[in-house]
Model the fold of this input.
Amino acid sequence: MSNTPLHSAGNEVPGGAPAEDTGSVTRQQWNWSALAGMASYLDAGSIVALGAGLALFKAKFGLSDGAVGVLAAIGPNALGCAIGALAGGWLGDKLGRKRIYQYDLLVYAAGILCSGLAVNREMLFLGTFVVGLAVGADVPTSLALVGEFAPSKARGKLLGFTQVAWCLGPVIVLLMAMALAPLGLLGIRIVFLQLFVVSLVTWALRRGLAESARWTAAAKSAPAARHQVRALFSGANLRALVWTATIYLFWNLAAGTAGIFNPYIISTLHAGSQAVSVGLSSANFIITMIVTITVFMKFSDRNYRTRKLLWGVGAVMQVAAYAIYLVLPFTISVIIASIVLFAISAALSGEAFYKVFSQELFPTMLRGTAQGFTFGIARTILGIWSFFVPVLAHAGIRPVAGLLTLFLAISGVVGFFFMPDTSGKSLEQIENERALG
Done:
């Protein structure tokens, strides 16, 4: 793979048009997006692998409901990831994208192997926490890389492509878990080992990636004051930080609950077997992946009005997805309806748009720090929430569903009415406009 840097903003391409203004995507950009997007694959894959095995680990190691909550809270779904994101995003801005995303996968590999081979609860908890740290560090730096080399009229397309990887990880993990369900805990261990192998292969392929040309240029030219974290907490940066944190925090509470607890809740409340619960969860990600490819990647770069339309439709659907549990019984048919609604909405008003706006609304030298902060805050709150989900689930689905309906309504309303107009603009143009506004 070539180490030739991509065009920096303002460089000319054949025909005289600025490289940044073209909507076409080169093969190299697709390849780089795929490798960067593997952070999302491994993040979501590890979350769902743990979720698919929660009931089995609980039985094997005699975990209480509280211990199950702690396990879910310290890993890639929550606190471990939050700590990694806060540190990794800041280090990616300070030291460069490549230094972080190239080596953190070795830490991930060590953690996922520890979890997969765990012979006691201590190994399981340690491995889960280490995996969380690693994926947390990888996500903001990898996404910043994609945002910085993507053409302005294809940023949503390439960042949406990383969301396809986020869906693909759970699909593979869940289908493997379903096929290996007769093996019990051994099947889950094999699933973890698949993630171990993928992380090492990705690490090897990433060694050919170049540093972000935008970061390199900004590191040389940006005033020292713009490198300082406190610049995030004033003016346009603060407004962007609050907005992206709000839409992601409240959406992620629902998505995180579904990702790690759906199989556990379905099995615990006797709505279906372990294999059925894993199969239904897999369908969720398959639908999201299809809608992301056919709708989000195709239309998210079109214009501001299209972005608002996509978000508005998704917001209504995601609220309906959990509201139906408040009026209908917790049966397989209702679960299927909820999964379909939430899966479609997740592609339209979920993490994909959060990824896009997190790259567009912050200056280059603070881009990773900002996303690491909002990502970390969201995962921290999710970790706290995860302590209570198993206990709430024993009281029935309605307490959980009622709260998630409220959370999704907040995310949808704030996202729709306060969405900024950044579609099709270069990162430099957006930064200049926000500095003036």
Summary: The chain is about 75% helix and 0% strand.
